[in-house]
Design brief:
Length: 264
């Protein structure tokens, strides 16, 4: 017998997600279900799917799945959307701690409806290596991110180049997200991202924006530790971090686009 399940469609600076309240643990989705729901035109359509579930240690737990139906690594914009959604259903207050992939994340619902999320410690910095004839850098900000600088971001072939580097199995046995960025001022960047798991360019990527800001600062390409990152949607994400990069914050808009129900 079919069951009607309520969902919210959310946008985090252009990253879009299907979000379910699973605090009662009564929603069970297979990889095929998730893939079908995230498929554009024939499903709801999204970059990923999020389940908000109970946590024994924190206010709630976020379970994140990529559009391919498989569990994903940390999604920064997904995390911000999860916080906003959890706040709307009363699962947390305006200051919250939640868990994702076994890690603690702290977040704040701000007065201007932006969500500020403290990221885990960045690691695995790699400077100046080559892939497919391009000079690359790398950092893991909760998800793996390759960084490529360009002065022609608007016309860069993100899809084909991103796909090649994402599938460079010698350098990245488990794949990588690929960020193409242009420095626009000492405190601002423009970024386009090819996302692993979506297998396409997305309108925004939170962990990618963080990776872009940290690597740009580390390489001396920007001077500020408060960085405005313009993403493909036209929205702005703000990345703030300490000099030692031990405290890193991602801030930006998170909105419910619409709500509905599906038959499963």
């Amino acid at each position: 017998m079919n069951t009607s399940i309520k969902f919210s469609k959310m946008s985090g600076a252009g990253n879009d997600f299907i979000v379910f309240d699973n605090m009662h643990k009564d929603i069970h989705l297979s990889a095929d279900n998730i893939r079908s729901l995230c498929t554009r035109r024939t499903g709801i359509g999204a970059d990923g799917l999020i389940l908000i579930e109970p946590s024994a240690r924190f206010d709630f737990a976020m379970k994140y799945y990529n559009a391919d139906g498989l569990p994903g690594s940390m999604c920064g914009n997904g995390g911000r959307c999860a916080v906003y959604f959890a706040w709307t259903i009363g699962a947390c207050g305006t200051t919250t701690a939640f868990e994702a992939n076994g890690n603690r994340y702290d977040a704040w619902v701000c007065d201007n409806e932006a969500i500020r999320l403290k990221m885990i410690l960045p690691h695995d910095f790699r400077d100046e290596f080559g892939s497919n004839g391009l000079s690359c850098n790398f950092v893991n900000t909760g998800s793996p991110h390759t960084i490529i600088f360009t002065d022609e971001l608007d016309t860069f072939d993100v899809e084909s180049t991103g796909r090649l580097i994402r599938n460079d199995s010698k350098l990245f046995p488990e794949g990588t997200n690929v960020n193409f960025l242009q420095v626009t001022s000492p405190e601002s960047l423009k970024v386009r991202t090819y996302e692993r798991g979506v297998e396409a360019e997305t309108l925004a990527c939170g962990t990618g924006a963080v990776a872009a800001a940290l690597m740009s600062y580390k390489l001396g390409k920007i001077a500020s530790r408060s960085v405005s990152v313009s993403v493909r949607s036209g929205d702005i994400l703000t990345i703030d971090f300490s000099e030692d990069m031990q405290d890193v914050y991602l801030s930006g808009p998170a909105t419910i686009v619409y709500t509905g129900s599906i038959q499963m």
